[in-house]
C-alpha cells in the first residue's frame, strides 16, 4: 500500500481552510463577547467560552476528514488560529497556543482510529478528545479549577455539545455537500 502525502493542491486547499476559518473565528469572538455580557449577570459568564468552543474547533476536523492524512487536522486548526490572530482579534498571539491545543485535540481523535475510519464514530471520538484536551487547557489557562463541581460538569457538557454540533455535525454536512458537488475526490 502506497502512503499518500500532501500535494500542492492539498496545501492550497489547507491554506484556504485556514483563511476561511480564521475569518469565522474572528467573527466568533463577537458572539463570545455578546454571550459573556448576557451570561455574566446570572453567574454563567464563563460558559460563553464553552458554548462557542465548537466554532473555534471546526477547521481541524474538516481538514482531517477532507485530507485523511496525519497532521492535516492539526495544521487546519493551527492555520485558522494564526489567521484569526493576524486579523487582530482580542487574544492576539495567544491564539497560536489555543490553535495548537485545539489541533492536538482533534488530531488525537483521528489517531485513535489510525486514520482509517471516517464516519460518525470518528466524529464522536474527535469531539470527545477535543473536548477533553481543550477543557484541560482551560483548567489551567482560564482557572476552571476554581469552579464548583456542578459548574465544571455544566461547562464540560456545554463544550462537548458545542464541539459535537459545530465540529462534528456541521462539518459532516459540509463534507457531504462537497462530495455531492464532486468538489473532493475519493
Give the radius of gyration.
16 Å
User: What class, by secondary structure content?
Assistant: mainly alpha
Helix count, DSSP H or I runs of 4 or more residues: 7
Question: Looking at the structure, what is the overall shape?
Answer: globular
Q: Outline the low-pLDDT stretches.
A: none
N to C succession of SSEs: HHHHHHH
Percent of residues in helices: over 70%
Strand content: under 5%
Distance between the termini: 16 Å
Whole-number mean pLDDT: 94
Number of β-strand runs: 0
Main pleated sheet: none
How does this model look, in words?
The model has no long low-confidence stretch (mean pLDDT 94). The protein has 186 residues and is mostly helical. The protein has helices spanning 8-39, 47-56, 59-67, 72-86, 94-112, 120-141, 149-180. It starts with 7 loop residues before the first helix and ends in a 6-residue tail after the last helix. α1 (8-39) runs antiparallel to α3 (59-67) and α5 (94-112) packs antiparallel against α6.
Characterize this entry briefly:
With 186 residues, the protein is mostly helical. The protein has helices at 8-39, 47-56, 59-67, 72-86, 94-112, 120-141, 149-180.
List the helices and strands and how they pair.
Layout: H1 8-39, H2 47-56, H3 59-67, H4 72-86, H5 94-112, H6 120-141, H7 149-180
Helix pairs in contact: 1-2, 1-3, 1-4, 2-7, 3-4, 3-7, 4-5, 5-6, 6-7
Which descriptors apply to this entry?
186 residues; mainly alpha; 7 helices
Amino acid at each position: 500500500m502506497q502512503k499518500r502525502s500532501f500535494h500542492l493542491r492539498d496545501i492550497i486547499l489547507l491554506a484556504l481552510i485556514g483563511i476561511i476559518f480564521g475569518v469565522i473565528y474572528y467573527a466568533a469572538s463577537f458572539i463570545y463577547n455578546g454571550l459573556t455580557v448576557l451570561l455574566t449577570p446570572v453567574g454563567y459568564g464563563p460558559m460563553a467560552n464553552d458554548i462557542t468552543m465548537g466554532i473555534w474547533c471546526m477547521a481541524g476536523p474538516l481538514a482531517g476528514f477532507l485530507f485523511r492524512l496525519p497532521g492535516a487536522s492539526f495544521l487546519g486548526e493551527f492555520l485558522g488560529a494564526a489567521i484569526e490572530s493576524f486579523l487582530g482579534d482580542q487574544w492576539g498571539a495567544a491564539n497560536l497556543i489555543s490553535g495548537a491545543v485545539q489541533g492536538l485535540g482533534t488530531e488525537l481523535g483521528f489517531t485513535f482510529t489510525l486514520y482509517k475510519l471516517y464516519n460518525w464514530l470518528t466524529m464522536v471520538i474527535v469531539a470527545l478528545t477535543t473536548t477533553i484536551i481543550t477543557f484541560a487547557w482551560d483548567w489551567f489557562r482560564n482557572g476552571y479549577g476554581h469552579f464548583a463541581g456542578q459548574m465544571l460538569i455544566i461547562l464540560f457538557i456545554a463544550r462537548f455539545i458545542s464541539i459535537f454540533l459545530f465540529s462534528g455535525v456541521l462539518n459532516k454536512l459540509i463534507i457531504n455537500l462537497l462530495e455531492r458537488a464532486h468538489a473532493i475526490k475519493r
